[in-house]
Design brief:
This protein is mainly alpha-helical. The protein folds into 3 domains: 221 residues, no CATH class; 55 residues, no CATH class; 72 residues, GMP Synthetase, Chain A, domain 3, CATH 3.30.300. Helix content is 66%, strand content 9%. Strands 1-2-3 form a 3-stranded mixed beta sheet. A 3-stranded mixed beta sheet has the order 4-5-6. Helix 3 runs antiparallel to helix 4 and helix 8 packs across helix 12. The longest helix has 54 residues. The N and C termini lie far apart (102 Å). The model has no long low-confidence stretch (mean pLDDT 81).
């Protein structure tokens, strides 16, 4: 039986050579050429997909992303004590993350859509299930790297399952919200960054285990016992700090789901049978309360009986609070007022932006009018002046200053040179392009 199991689960049949695996991992960990372009395009596509709430676009970005390379490379290096590969993978992983965060931050800073979408919020609450997905995704990833045929469609599947790119983009979104002053949304940045750390650590850990225990690839260096123990202690500490919070979050998530399901059954079986028109229910898992706003109020004995029935739904520590229709109207008015105040603040922000833009236009107009008077003193044929902003194909502003001058009659060459010298000094720019407009027939 053991022989059959070993035969079926043996990974050392038709493996890729160790030198080839190492070279593939080294190339996948490099931060240049195609990997750099693939990273920037993947992070941009993922950011757009999160912004559009499009799952298909996000999956496309996962398939393009080269982030898996340095992570698997780091796990392989830790297993084989290949410190050169570890330095390359670690350095490039930090650069990958830095550029990804910067790219997504830049995109979300200029994106007109500010509210977090469902796809963004889905990546802010990692649990132990994400740990398991990342671990087994890492196992599949290193197995694919060790095969001569690269495991067929394993690597694309691993890229989709482990989802390294979307949480990193979400972290960029959260960072943009923090920089914009929305400090109450800190959980978006923290949760998504934690999810990315979970994925990265567990993929590297799975690569380490498979490389050492299943593939049995020889170590490049054999450190002394003290170094080996120190490395083992660091790895164990990192893994524990990664897994333990996810266990607590999973416990909280399961508890919240169970609570909400119990509340749903309780409301359907207990409250609806009272035949009292319920206007609204307000459930709080944190406070363990259920507020019921209704047109009619049950008597005290009925309320006490309903409270006792919570034990049948495992809601013993949950308070049932009945609210009158008047309280419902007050609550609704409060919510509407809060929403109106928030809308007013958004409008005020828009008005402030428009006001600053208008002030800029007015200052520009006053400046151009002043320069026109100075140009008219140089030559009375000059009847109009304006500064024309120019944009480059990448959207950046042209550093050269382009101006338009309207003349009643053509200016002689020496006067044009005088005007050009004046504008270079007046506009404080060595790159001034002057275009003359002459009325038809002149």
């Amino acid at each position: 039986m053991k022989r059959y199991l070993v035969t079926y689960f043996n990974l050392r049949t038709d493996p890729e050579g160790e030198a080839t695996i190492l070279e593939e991992l080294r190339q996948g960990s490099e931060f240049k050429g195609i990997n750099l372009w693939a990273l920037i395009t993947a992070i941009t596509i993922a950011s757009v997909g999160l912004n559009m709430n499009s799952t298909a676009v996000i999956i496309g970005a996962m398939l393009i992303s080269p982030l898996m390379g340095p992570i698997i490379g780091a796990g392989f290096a830790l297993s084989t004590f290949d410190f050169d590969l570890l330095k390359t993978a670690g350095r490039n992983f930090i650069l990958f993350v830095g550029i990804s965060l910067a790219t997504s931050l830049l995109y979300f800073s200029v994106s007109p859509m500010e509210d977090p979408t469902e796809e963004i919020l889905a990546r802010t609450y990692p649990t132990i299930y994400d740990v398991l997905i990342a671990f087994f995704g890492g196992v599949a990833g290193i197995v694919a790297y060790s095969r001569k045929d690269r495991g067929g469609n394993i690597l694309p599947g691993v890229a989709i399952a482990t989802a390294l790119m979307p949480p990193l983009c979400t972290a960029g979104f959260g960072l943009s919200r923090l920089l914009a002053g929305h400090f109450m949304e800190w959980y978006i940045f923290a949760g998504s960054l934690y999810l990315f750390i979970i994925n990265s650590v567990m993929i590297a850990f799975a690569t380490m285990l498979v490389t050492r225990l299943a593939l049995r690839i020889r170590r490049k260096h054999y450190p002394d016992e003290a170094v080996r123990q120190r490395v083992t202690l660091i790895i164990t500490t990192v893994i524990l700090f990664t897994i333990v919070p996810s266990l607590w979050l999973a416990y909280s998530l399961i508890g919240k789901n169970n609570f909400e399901n119990s509340v749903k059954q309780f409301l359907e079986r207990e409250v609806e049978t009272l035949q009292i028109p319920v206007l609204k229910t307000k459930v709080s898992y944190k406070d363990r309360t259920i507020e019921i706003f209704s047109l009619g109020m049950p008597d005290t004995s009925t309320q006490r009986l309903i409270q006792q029935h919570t034990a049948y739904y495992k809601l013993e520590d949950t308070r049932i609070i009945f609210r009158s229709a008047r309280e419902y109207l007050v609550e609704k008015e409060r919510v509407n007022r809060t929403e109106a105040e928030n809308q007013l603040l958004r409008w005020q922000d828009s008005v402030e932006v428009l006001s600053k833009t208008l002030d800029g236009y007015q200052r520009q107009a006053a400046r151009e009018a002043h320069i026109l008077r100075e140009l008219s003193a140089i030559d009375t044929n000059i009847a109009g002046f304006g500064i024309v902003p120019m944009r480059l194909p990448n959207g950046a502003a042209d550093s050269a200053v382009n101006v338009m001058i309207r003349c009643n009659n053509p200016l002689p060459p020496d006067r044009q040179q005088q005007v050009h010298r004046f504008l270079i000094m007046r506009l404080d720019s060595a790159r001034v392009t002057v275009n003359y407009l002459i009325p038809a027939g002149q």
